[in-house]
Amino acid sequence: MLQRVVGSMLLVTSLVTLMIATGCRSARYYYKAAEGEDFLIGALFPIHQPPYTKQHMSRNCGAFWERPGIQRMEAALQAVDDINSRRDLLPNTTLGIQIRDNCWYAAISLEQVSQLIGRSAWSKIEYQEVSHPYRRPPDAGDGAQCEDRGPDKNLVAVVGSLLEGGADDVHSLLSLFRIPLVSYAFAGQEPELSSLLGYFVSVAPWSEPVMARAMADLVTYFNWTYVSTVFTSDASNEAALTKFMAVSKIQGVCIAQFLALSAGASDQEYREAVDNLRKVESGRVVVCFCTSVTVAGLFTAIRDSNSTGRFTLVV
Q: Per its UniProt entry, which superkingdom is the organism in (predicted)?
């Protein structure tokens, strides 16, 4: 399992075919090129940490942010590649994605999403854009002509951003142009987003009962009837685990063990957790109600204990 994860990360990293930096570090986008793409989706991920000073308007983002940003970017690139490789999902259609760095900051989110509006496939043709192409003079080099024809209008939706990254502001702007905003992490409880209608779509409410039910359904779908569980010791993940236990019992799933790891668990504690998982020979499936830090710690401990491929983690 770990080998597949690492391999996928290396693969999708190689798929980043264009990276443009303009002005400062925040104005960047990562583009998964698709030859002759029919439709394009935009995405806002925090590739960098927020500006160090939020009291003043700033476009200078912080350091690279691996877990909430880069990993989501890699997952999005992999998802697009998987969709395009399957004929049963979008037959005779090619999907592309343009991922923009919002640095988990509302002002930068608005700046970045404004660059996508001109590509909207939903805009009615109510006016004619007249291009002013630049033509290279005949005495310049080989006499080739350069012409800026503008972007294709094939953007169908924007994925993100999170509430902390200005989701309500982004939605307000996109809704003016009838561009759907798709949330990948929305609890449905935030008062700022409780009234979002029309062009706001939540992939799945990010709440403990829904997450637990989704995990139980996934385990049942693959007929995994004997699993181990690991959870990060906090109120949210403990509540999700409790709900998972109730639902999985009804669906005939047996839970071999429950392993708790604190948010600041040491390397030794991760190694001990993996040792306990290895003791249950038939419990190769591990359901993890964990933070990204806990998941990363488990992967490291699995690798260091030469247990790569031993477990299937459901996260």
A: Eukaryota
